[in-house]
Design goal:
Layout (H helix, E strand, L loop, with lengths): L6 H16 L6 H8 L3 H7 L3 H24 L9 H10 L9 H9 L4 H27 L9 H22 L3 H6 L4 H4 L5
Helix pairs in contact: 1-2, 1-4, 4-5, 4-7, 6-7, 7-8
């Protein structure tokens, strides 16, 4: 029986960490191979190009973000209108250097450079907007928000606000903007409170 290789996972994990830290354009295939401790043949066996690896990285980031972060922050036992605050509180417990969100970083980096990566990044952000939209719809059904509350627009605005907070935190290398400005997101849905 042949041995099982974890080369693909090592490549994916290494690429995700490096791209989060430095950005897609600033990470070369050689950097990824060196970090993953794999050869060129292993890399190209699993990924036909750096762009294909980039797509896999966005997919993996989406899976991990939804599983590790949003599933906990948006749990059913947390009141819908408190979930954003739960999310920002959870983010602030991260002690690693602040690298921002791969979705927001990728949106800025890929919007004009790679159509496949732009599409993947857009799908990630749409999935996050969907989480927020479901939350606002739940708040409407629980009569915390008016029935005519524009749940999709509130969700998109909340995600845009969160991405802006990530950018400020990344530039300042501090969670302080998330702490001080995060609670102000409520002003987006305040006009629709019942």
């Amino acid at each position: 029986m042949g041995r099982t290789s974890d080369a693909k996972e090592r490549i994916l994990d290494s690429a995700l960490a490096l791209i989060q830290e430095r950005g897609y354009a600033n990470v070369g295939v050689e950097d990824i191979m060196q970090t993953a401790k794999v050869g060129k043949s292993s890399f190209y066996h699993f990924f036909k190009s750096k762009e294909k690896l980039g797509e896999a990285v966005v997919d993996e980031y989406t899976r991990r973000t939804c599983k590790d972060l949003f599933d906990r922050a948006f749990a059913a036992d947390i009141h819908p209108l408190q979930r954003f605050h739960k999310l920002t509180a959870m983010l602030q417990t991260d002690t690693r250097p602040i690298v921002g969100c791969l979705g927001g970083n990728g949106a800025a980096e890929h919007a004009n450079n790679s159509e496949p990566l732009r599409i993947k990044t857009d799908a990630f952000l749409d999935q996050i907007v969907g989480r927020f939209e479901d939350t606002f719809a739940e708040a409407v059904s629980e009569m915390d928000l008016h029935p005519d509350a524009p749940t999709h627009d509130l969700a998109a605005a909340s995600v845009a606000y969160l991405q802006g907070l990530f950018l400020l935190c990344k530039v300042k290398q501090s969670w302080e903007p998330m702490t001080t400005l995060g609670p102000m997101v409520e002003h987006l849905w305040h006009p629709y409170l019942v």
